[in-house]
Write a structure and sequence with these properties.
The protein has a 3-stranded antiparallel beta sheet with strand order 1-7-4, with helices on one face. The chain has one helix spanning 27-37, and strands spanning 10-15, 18-20, 23-25, 40-49, 58-60, 67-69, 73-81. It is 13% helix and 44% strand. The chain has one domain (10-81). The chain has 84 residues and is mainly beta. The longest helix has 11 residues, at 27-37. The model has no long low-confidence stretch (mean pLDDT 81). This is Methyltransferase.
């Protein structure tokens, strides 16, 4: 992504932290770490509730017939490519 951006260009990314086998996967933190290692600078990070979802808020889970929550918030990340 760094090669595709112009100098002083911006990248906006929307990610959702999900759970796999009841373990939270912090995709926002992972994305920040990767993009900063590629030379981009995090300008802003904010969370917002997902207002209109096409999927239910809970889904069935096979083990012990429990249900799991689906993503209810998303994180918006704004990065800047600084001049070389």
């Amino acid at each position: 992504m760094n090669k595709c951006l112009s100098k002083n260009g911006y990248l906006i990314m929307t990610v959702g932290n999900r759970s796999v086998d009841a373990v939270r996967q912090p995709l926002d933190d992972i994305s920040i770490e990767i993009l900063e290692s590629l030379g981009l600078k995090l300008v802003s990070k904010f969370n917002r509730n997902i207002l209109y979802k096409n999927s239910p808020s809970r889904l069935p889970f096979n083990k012990n017939e429990r249900s799991i929550s689906t993503i209810s918030q998303e994180t918006i990340l704004l990065f800047n490519k600084m001049e070389d």
